[in-house]
Amino acid sequence: MNAPLPRGVCPPLDAPGGPRVAPRPSAPRLLVSVRDTAEALQAAAGGAAIIDAKEPATGALGAVPEAVLRQLVTALRAAGHGQPVSATIGDGPWDDVAALEARVRATAACGVQWVKVGAGPGDARSLVALGRLQARLRAEQDAAESAGQPRPLLAWRGLVPVLLADAGLDSCRLNAALRSGFPALMLDTADKRGGSLLARRPAAELQAFVQAVQATGAWAGLAGSLRLDELPALRRFGADLLGFRGAVCDSDRAGRLAPERLTALRAALGPA
Ligand SMILES: O=C[C@H](O)COP(=O)(O)O
């Protein structure tokens, strides 16, 4: 188990304190979670900037079966959709680094650009291990490329920690995640019955997260039962990514993707 880092060295993230950064593009990129090929094609055609493979029936970070993931990536490319694909590896905790690595490798080998890994409270040490894993996998990719060999993890570009913030985000976890050169960090919720991230966390905490992540050059993403009517408030944080599932489904997030809802969201976000 990961022992929590000592208390006292991690002040609460309750106020914007990090360095100010240049404002990002006014329209955040839209990440849409999909469970199969049909939904992936709908999301791509509907203007999602990132296609996020996730099986909502098996948890907040439920993994899509590998065969489905491979098929989904192939179908997107065959249809001419170039959007990056992210995929989750399933709900943690991922205390066993060997098991984590095996899941990451298997997921990356399906042809995705990003592999998302959830980190709950007390997972600061796991985030350090995740950073080391990313460095090792990137070195493998680079070495193969320099030797003129096929990259072992195909199109994989990096790991994206998803910091589960139902009960808040402490700066220990955030600091651990900021040190490793992840391409993006996301805040999300594990319990989807508890309302949206925006309603559950103070605006100052979300703002502090976005600023701290962007100050490292990474993309900052927000997700967690976000709603269309929250877009005006969400835009004010200047996040690079906004992630949606429930709001673009016909019932709850375990239902089917509803293209008309995605169209409305895309239109409300403004030009991609
Ligand atoms: O990564 C984004 C999530 O899948 C968002 O799902 P949700 O909107 O149902 O919380």
UniProtKB/TrEMBL annotation:
InterPro entries, sorted: 4HFCP_synth (IPR007565)
Entry EC number(s): 4.2.3.153
Superkingdom to which the source organism belongs: Bacteria
Top-level EC class: lyase
Catalytic residue list: 54, 116
Region (Disordered): 1-26
Catalyses which reaction(s): 2 D-glyceraldehyde 3-phosphate = 4-(hydroxymethyl)-2-furancarboxaldehyde phosphate + phosphate + 2 H2O
Annotated GO MF terms: lyase activity
Record keywords: Lyase, Schiff base
Function in brief: Catalyzes the formation of 4-(hydroxymethyl)-2-furancarboxaldehyde phosphate (4-HFC-P) from two molecules of glyceraldehyde-3-P (GA-3-P).
Protein name: (5-formylfuran-3-yl)methyl phosphate synthase
